[in-house]
Amino acid sequence: MNTWLKTLPAALMLVCGVAQASGGVVVGGTRLIYDGGKKESSLSVNNSDKLPYLIQSWAETQNGGAEKAPFIVTPPLFRLEAGQQNVLRIVRTGGNLPEDRESLYWLNIKSIPSAPKTEDGANTLQIAVKTRIKLIYRPKGLKGSPGEVTSKLTWSQSGNKLTVTNPTPFYMNFREIKVGGREIKDATFVAPQGQATFNVPNGASGQVTWKLINDYGGVGPEHKNGA
User: Where in the numbering of this chain does the Pili assembly chaperone N-terminal domain appear (predicted)?
Assistant: First the structure.
């Protein structure tokens, strides 16, 4: 532990990642669906590097404010040896969460490499990588999946703005949205029983098509409005 403590104040850069922390630490998923009918969920962390890493993990609210997320991650801090794997356990700790729709939080995994030894004792630059993935709480009573009900989405265009309305209880995470065959660059997601608005390329109009990211991080089939 002393190696990290000596190195961090001197030279530490933080880089945000999506599903993989560079340097050989890989998080086992691009999102985590927490089944409300179970006591906990889990996520693997693998170190394929030749050096050990310090792994720190925590959950936070969607807005990342001072309010605490109703989940704990264990172990919150541990050393992951070279070539080894560990499993993070995510446990709900309470919270008055809706039971008729999904709730979105963020799961953060920060990987801090150990400092390599140098013969002359010179300072080295260490890069800490923070991976942030969606933590989606799915209540016990919800049946099915986003892909099964995505046809219920409705779309409306006004000028260069495209609005999607989601009457379902699921988060719809978009991999791709196109208008008249032209791709929207800022497509993200739409909350359950909510709306989201995206920018349309200049002059684009016509049929809306979209693809979702499924529960396992894969890309689903193309859907069309009115189909």
Answer: 24-143
